[in-house]
Write a structure and sequence with these properties.
4 helices; about 70% helix; mainly alpha; Substrate Binding Domain Of Dnak, Chain:A, Domain 2
Amino acid sequence: MVKDAEANASADKEKREKIDLKNQAETLVYQAEKQLADLGDKVGAEDKAKVEQFSTQLKEALANDDTATIKTVLEQLQQALYAAGASVYQQAGADGAAASEAPGGNGNGTAAGTSSADDVIDAEFTESK
């Protein structure tokens, strides 16, 4: 039995790598669809089209069990998702910077004269035994 296990070890390793790659690809497709749905119109049309294109290609490669295509399209989809996310965060950062420089602002997102410390509730308590 040990000899059989050693003889089949490389085949088992290849099979496991294929399964792990397939799982990773399926997870990434799900994440891409979820991210596009969550971000909606915040994602640029070009970035959204790339993500959808690579997602479709990856689904087809998964259906055909084409390992080489899965590897290449998986990397392309990851890069497209990173680019889409980065552009959304840059837009959010630009919007946040503009809001903090607005008149009456003190740079931390609250109006001048107010502070987040106003939300503190002071209470006394005693412990009875």
